[in-house]
Amino acid sequence: MLVAAALAAATLHGCATPQPAEPPARWKVAEIQTEVESEDCCPALAAAGFALLAARDMAMPGNSLRIALGCRPAGDGIEVASMLQLKVFSRTLESETFESANSDTIFACEDGFLSLGASLFDLIRQVSEIQAISGVADEKLCEIASRRRGPVPLAVLMRALEELAVRNNTDCVAAVEELALSSSGDLALRAIGTLGRLKVPRTVLTLGRLTLSNEGSIAWAATYAIADIGGPDAVRALEIIAGQSVRPTLGLEAARLAESLRERGR
Fold first, then answer.
1. How far apart are CA 145 and CA 159, in angstroms?
2. Does residue 62 lie within any of the structural domains?
3. What pTM was computed for the model?
């Protein structure tokens, strides 16, 4: 069936050299839950999750998929809303949960099944791309962060930033600085946190500018990232923030952080 085929395709995509003796595949699910909120849903849709049972062989224990469906009449068709929640294990055996939501108008049950299968395939492909980040070479990681080959999905960028910090890879810190200036708040916050963990002194200038952001969360995150970097430049930047910030509470915190760095000789 389509959903099972989609899962199998993603499994092959995520494992470059599958071996029969390998541990359970990280992409396969051991548990499927299907919830239907309306009797108007087609029987084929209500049972769609069970198509995944065909892919349960060698499933990673604990991996699970939850499918929630809601349906209502829409003119001559049926409006189907679906929520997919996929829980899988990372390469480090940490549990991660990924979700997607979709709404579509169908005119036959078969159309709804195809729509659900496509949504599931997109979700599994996203999981594959995100978790594959931990296995790429440093050069490829920097290529993703700098978006040299074109647009990169937000979730993939977020994971790439985390991986740069984990590896303490400063080869493409300029790309991280650019991402810290992003209009996406979530992406900017992740990049700011990465700069703080990479501890490259020259990035204090970029972070200092970000403390002037109209977004309070950005200003606060940048201030803490400066303190994480430490050093004379960080102390001076925090002193400036303490004296000039339009946010009194942030100014007080910057002064405290500057004093703490001085006491520790950082």
1. 10
2. yes
3. 0.68
